[in-house]
Amino acid sequence: MRRTIYQHDANAKHEGAPRLAWVRGLLAVGACVAVASIGSSCNLDPVHRASVNGLGPEEADLYPVESEYHRPGEPCALCHSTKGPADSVFVLGGTVFWGPDDYNARVDNAYVRILDANKTKRCFVTNCNGNFYVRKEDFSKITFPLLVSVERTVKPGQDESTLVIRRMSSHIGREASCATCHIQGLRDFASPGQIRMFNSEQEFKDKNIPLIDCPPPEDFVQVQKCPEDVN
Fold this sequence. Notes:
The protein is an alpha+beta fold. It has 3 helices and 6 strands.
């Protein structure tokens, strides 16, 4: 008798599993609709969702929030992806710093040059907070792997003599966020550290390069195109 009861319960549990899964899926979809109705996105990928949540809230004392200047040094494509909550999709994005350690010393008007697997070249310019981003519509046929270099000229838009140029020693295989590998505050076998123009803070200080506030002052000239793209 005990065996019969056990067998009956096991069968009931087995038969109910698909139904239970279906109900859970329906509830998840309902949650998505509810969240979407208040202007956010719903991501059913728990790993990606946890990564986005792990970024934490914006920090208004460090950068202008909810803007093109926000979250410097963070993996921007976590949010700016088809899975993420941002409206725009980035195929590549990152932040360029002057030195290896100072989070607040970021490179304005640097030229980020990209060469993809089809030998297609594109160039993008960092803003006052050192951020650059490549939207999907800006490089629709981008094909990995990529080779990337970063150049800062003496006075971008006026004196285009090279001040400093850095080239990646390896290629980018498929990762859209530079900060996934160039981890803020970490330099060891796991990461080369933040993207930097100089290998020491002292080397940067010796150049007496002025830092730009962000948002920038009214007289700040934001270069919109790299020299080779200017008509």
